Amino acid sequence: MVRHSTKTSNKQKTASYSKSLATTAYHEAGHTVANVLHNIPFRYVSIEDNKRSVGHVQTLDFPRSLNPTSGISMRKRTRLESDVMALLAGNITEKHYSGRADHRGARSDRHQAMTILSQLSGSDEELSAYYKWLKIRISTEILEPRNWKLVKAIATALLKQRTITAREIRKIVMEESGLSIVGQRLEVSPFES
User: Fold this and answer.
1) Are 87 and 32 in contact (CB under 8 A)?
2) pLDDT at 181
3) What is the Cα–Cα distance from 134 to 151, expressed in whole angstroms?
4) 174: which strand partners?
5) Crossing angle, helix 145-161 and helix 166-177, to 10 degrees?
6) What is the mean pLDDT of residues 48-70?
7) For the chain, what percentages of helix, strand and coil (3-state, to nearest 5) are there?
8) Which domains does the chain have, with CATH numbers?
9) Nearest of 66, 69, 50 to residue 58 by alpha carbon
């Protein structure tokens, strides 16, 4: 009787870990670029493993819960839609980079997105359509060549540094796109042709 072994060499484990880390870097870079595009303030992005996740973007606090009796301003609705798109961007960039999406790894992002949208929707049908629409919007934005270039640059920097501050992201954005972040707004550089 022949027994087949599936032992993994250290070299294979290292290659697998490197590919997994690169996929995480692209996932987090996607969230970061969406935050930049939608002027969502954040402190840093990291692919350091902590007890809760392998990677994350630390955004500044914004109240995501709504009081249905007080209504919602267009400004707040727009911000919440931007938050949802930023949450969805990670899985989109991960899939584009690696050819497959990690549905288990993106479960928290998807859950947060659906929680936000459920407060803005009147029915399950509306919720589903709203989710799909925002996913299409951010897919189109994030995969646009100029923005994909930013995703790649941020993912590459994450693989080198593991954690990047918002200030360092501003520098990458300026170097790669000619855009500058002034306050929390993206502006075209006067030097761009």
Assistant:
1) no
2) 61
3) 19
4) none
5) 140
6) 72
7) 60, 10, 30
8) 15-165 (1.20.58.760)
9) 50
